[in-house]
Amino acid sequence: DKPQPASSAVIQKVIEQAYDKYKPVMDGKNASYIPYLAKADGKLYGIAIVTVDGRVFRIGDAGHPFPVESVSKIFTLADVLHKQGAESVLHKIGVNATGLPFNSALAVELNNDKLGGSPPPGNPLVNAGAMATASLVEGKTLDAKWQSVIDTASAFAGHTLHLNDNVYRSEMASNQHNQAIAMLLQSYDHLYADVSETVDLYTRECSYDVDAVDLATMGATLANGGTNPRTHHAVVDAATSAHVLAVMATAGLYNTSGEWLFKVGLPGKSGVGGGIVAVVPGKLAIGVYSSRLDAAGNSVRGQLAVQFIAQALGANIFAAEAQ
C-alpha cells in the first residue's frame, strides 16, 4: 500500500505554525557584497509548500519576488544532465563536496586532476563547478545558451521567469573573483566554453527573480520525477531528478550541507538572495524566503521553517519506524 499523502488541513496547519513560530526571529543579516541584496527588506518572510498532486499552500510574503542566486544552480544542472547525461557531469564537473567555501579558488587548485587523477573541481553547486556546468549549456551563442537556462527554469516554475536587470548589472560589476575562478578552471581544462561568455551566463543564471511559491513548485517538480505537478509538463526525466537531488544532499547548503542533512534529512538548496528549497521525494517541496543569512550564506528563518515542517510532517528521508 502506498502511504496516503498528508491531508490539506494538516499541511495548512503546519505551514501556519512554522510561519508564526519564526516570524519574530531577526537573526542574521542580508548579503552585503551584492548592493541590490543589501537593500532587501529583512522583515519579509514567506513560506510555500507544493505537493506532487499539485496542491499549493502559502503564507506570508510567499509571492514576493527576490533574486534566485545559487538556487538556480540545481536547475541549470538539471538542464545539462537531461541533455548530456550523468557521465558527462561526473567526468567534467564532479559531484563530491569540496569542504571549502562555495566561492573558493583553492578548491580548484586542490581538486584539479593534473595532480594525479583526482576527480574534477568539486560539484555543480559551488561557484567553480557551477561555472563549469554553465560552460556545458548547449547553444551557439550566449543568448541561445541563456534561453536554454531560463526556459528550463521557467518550465520548472510553470510560468515565464525574468532576468532582474538591476541584480545582473550589480553582479557583473563586482564579479572579479568569479572571473578569476573561471580563468583557473580554464587553465586546468575544466571550463568548456569561452571564459567571459561563461561568467556572463553564470551571472545571468543567478539573477532571475523567483518567489517562494516558484521555489516550492520547482522543488515539487524534482519531487515528482521531473514532471511539474501544476502544469503536468515533463521538464526532465526521473533519473535526472534523482541525480539533482543527490547533489543537493551533498552540497546544497554551502559549508553546512552535512549539518543540514544531519538535522533535517532532506535535500535542499539555498541562495544568498534569501531563498531556500527543500524536497521530499515523491511527496512535496517547501520554498521559503527570508533575506537574513547566517555566516554560511543560508537564510536563517528559511532553515528554521524547513526543519520545523520536515519534523512536523515526518519527512526526514533517513528516518524509519521499526517494523
From TrEMBL:
Entry keyword annotation includes Cell inner membrane: no
EC numbers on record: 3.5.1.2
Top-level taxon: Bacteria
SUPFAM superfamilies according to UniProt: beta-lactamase/transpeptidase-like
GO process annotations (BP): glutamate biosynthetic process; L-glutamine catabolic process
The keyword Transmembrane helix is assigned to this record: no
Annotated protein name in UniProt: glutaminase
Organism: Acetobacter fabarum
Catalytic function, reaction form: L-glutamine + H2O = L-glutamate + NH4(+)
PANTHER family named in the record: GLUTAMINASE, GLUTAMINASE 1
Keywords: Hydrolase
Organism placement in taxonomy: Bacteria, Pseudomonadati, Pseudomonadota, Alphaproteobacteria, Acetobacterales
InterPro entries: Beta-lactam/transpept-like, Glutaminase
Record-level Gene Ontology MF annotations: glutaminase activity
Family, as annotated: Belongs to the glutaminase family.
Subunit organization: Homotetramer.
